[in-house]
Amino acid sequence: MYADDRGPLTANVRHRGSYYWHDRAMSKTAIPEAIEEHRDQCWRREATRQIETAIEAERFIAHVGFAACLTDSRRPGASLYIAVCGRRDAVMPRNVQKDPEASLTWVLKDELVARGKVYYAKLSRGKALFLAPRMIPYFHAVWGLRRSQEKQHLSRHAQAILRVLRKEWEMATSDLRDESGVKDRKTFTAALDELQAAMIVVPSQVVYQPKFTYIWELAIGRFPDELMQRVKRADAVREIARCFLNGAGMTIPGELARVTGLSRPEAGLGNRALVAEQYADMLAPGVYRLRQGRNQTAPSLHLPN
Prior knowledge:
Blueprint: E1 11-12, E2 18-20, E3 29-31, H1 33-42, H2 54-64, E4 66-68, H3 80-85, H4 100-115, E5 119-122, E6 128-131, H5 136-143, H6 150-153, H7 156-168, E7 170-172, H8 173-180, H9 185-197, E8 201-207, E9 213-218, H10 219-222, H11 224-228, H12 233-248, E10 250-251, H13 255-260, H14 264-276, E11 280-284, E12 287-290
Antiparallel strand pairs: 1-2, 2-3, 4-6, 5-6, 7-9, 8-9, 10-12, 11-12
């Protein structure tokens, strides 16, 4: 239910310099090796800094701001799975059940959900993301729904599930399906995804015995302070762009949009806001680099010829 979409191979990754393909219609943009080393450090793509415990995973998410769960090197951005593997060329195997790194990532994900110190849900475009608490207000400003907007934007099935959760506060998947009256499994899953994307509902626990199920609760019950903050959308987009650029060192056309779910025009506005405040430099159309001195780990870089 939460395995990230791993479609056709969309990136060719090399240890000494990489080329990312973000779209079959896009031309390739080279990522300098110095940037790859910056990403290795920030995104823990190093064998000496592999993540093995939930506490290490929480520190990792706090550092990067937001991260995917089970994406591999074929998709850009910080990823818990890649940090568990500790290498930049990690690729999710077809048989994930027998892969120790994929299994550990799944176990850590369950522990993080139960601990409740980081936000986890399917957000924009069905992307399962971890958010550090400091990033929750910004993501909510872009994708979240206020209570006054729910009737206008939520489907009737999502509203039926939400009514039950507002009464009970938390409930297992099967019980929630029965109580809400949304009996069809596909319809129920789509409604839950809708509520997660609106940052209203989150999983709070994963139970395996006597049968596998998620426990669901209202997001505001876990993160009331963060979800009550009011942030202007433009400011939120800028801070999401800043967070990504800090870890990426440089962003190439379409990369920020693909990682976060922002539209490409809005992602561009976020990056240009960083240029306006001299936090980043625009090297070419769609290519932005963290300005020297704005991040202690930012490498000394020059756009290759």
